[in-house]
From TrEMBL:
<keyword id="KW-0777">Teichoic acid biosynthesis</keyword>
<keyword id="KW-0961">Cell wall biogenesis/degradation</keyword>
<keyword id="KW-0328">Glycosyltransferase</keyword>
<dbReference type="GO" id="GO:0071555">
    <property type="term" value="P:cell wall organization"/>
</dbReference>
<dbReference type="InterPro" id="IPR004629">
    <property type="entry name" value="WecG_TagA_CpsF"/>
</dbReference>
<comment type="function">
    <text>Catalyzes the conversion of GlcNAc-PP-undecaprenol into ManNAc-GlcNAc-PP-undecaprenol, the first committed lipid intermediate in the de novo synthesis of teichoic acid.</text>
</comment>
<dbReference type="GO" id="GO:0047244">
    <property type="term" value="F:N-acetylglucosaminyldiphosphoundecaprenol N-acetyl-beta-D-mannosaminyltransferase activity"/>
</dbReference>
<dbReference type="GO" id="GO:0019350">
    <property type="term" value="P:teichoic acid biosynthetic process"/>
</dbReference>
<comment type="similarity">
    <text>Belongs to the glycosyltransferase 26 family. TagA/TarA subfamily.</text>
</comment>
<comment type="pathway">
    <text>Cell wall biogenesis; teichoic acid biosynthesis.</text>
</comment>
<dbReference type="Pfam" id="PF03808">
    <property type="entry name" value="Glyco_tran_WecG"/>
</dbReference>
<protein>
    <recommendedName>
        <fullName>N-acetylglucosaminyldiphosphoundecaprenol N-acetyl-beta-D-mannosaminyltransferase</fullName>
        <ecNumber>2.4.1.187</ecNumber>
    </recommendedName>
</protein>
<dbReference type="InterPro" id="IPR034714">
    <property type="entry name" value="TagA_TarA"/>
</dbReference>
<keyword id="KW-0808">Transferase</keyword>
Length: 242
């Protein structure tokens, strides 16, 4: 699978449809797959965090979540045509699960969040098979792994925050029969209705980050990673950016 690389961090140039089609083939052949969202903040953080870089590059699909990744690809003549956001990727996987009969398990977040998310997912996708859910405060990890396996889950969404969720996935993958793992951060909050996404106009223009900044000004320091990343891409030779 050809990937683009930005300062040592890999990004998959595939669309939602291409990822879903590839996952169906991998599930059919019994292969496990992992999905991680990549944005400029993670790329910049990975420069000083070898473990984070290893987690990202060790995933099957590194989806271009941030608009900065899309812009960087265009600046460098890459193949990324559109963003693939974590929450929208989760929705595509839920739809795939409903259509193909795959079982889903949710793990992470607070009890009131994950339980409400599960209920709302069942309403939105009435034919989906939810194998179960568990909040992110489970103490007995052995029991959790056993429960997920007993559920027969094919797809597991983990919402523990990054990179904790990716570390959990990497540690437990060998013991799980799950075929698709996605770390989804705060997506359960969206499905639970506790967090509202940016209006569609902002999302279409790739300005979801601006909407969130207006709603949460305290995010300003984190958002500085976007201009820093783009300036670094702009003033770095194509071969050096890799």
């Amino acid at each position: 699978m050809k990937k683009e690389t930005y300062f040592g961090v890999e990004v998959s140039p595939l669309s939602y449809e291409e990822i879903v089609d590839t996952l169906k083939l991998r599930i059919h052949s019994g292969e496990q797959s992992t999905i991680i969202a990549v944005n400029p903040e993670k790329v910049m953080a990975a420069q000083n965090n070898p473990q984070l870089k290893e987690l990202i590059n060790g995933s099957t699909f590194q989806i271009p979540d941030g608009v900065g990744i899309l812009l960087a690809s265009k600046l460098k003549g890459g193949d990324i045509q559109s963003r693939v956001t974590g929450v929208d990727m989760m929705e595509r996987l839920l739809l795939m699960a409903e259509q193909e009969g795959y079982k889903v398990f949710l793990y992470g977040a607070k009890e009131e969040v994950v339980s409400k998310a599960a209920a709302n997912i069942q309403i939105k996708h009435p034919a989906i098979q939810l194998g179960g859910y568990e909040n992110g405060y489970v103490q007995d990890q052995e029991e959790l792994v056993e429960r997920i396996n007993e559920s027969g889950a094919d797809i597991l969404f983990v919402a523990l925050g990054s990179p904790r969720q990716e570390l959990w996935i990497r540690e437990n993958m060998p013991r799980l029969n799950v075929k698709v793992f996605q770390g989804v951060g705060g997506s359960f909050d969206v499905y639970a209705g506790h967090v509202q996404r940016a209006p569609e106009g902002f999302r279409k223009l790739g300005l979801e980050w601006l909407y969130r900044l207006m709603k949460e000004p305290k995010r300003f320091k984190r958002q500085l990673a976007l201009p820093k990343f783009l300036l670094k891409v702009l003033f770095t030779r194509k071969d050096q950016a890799r």
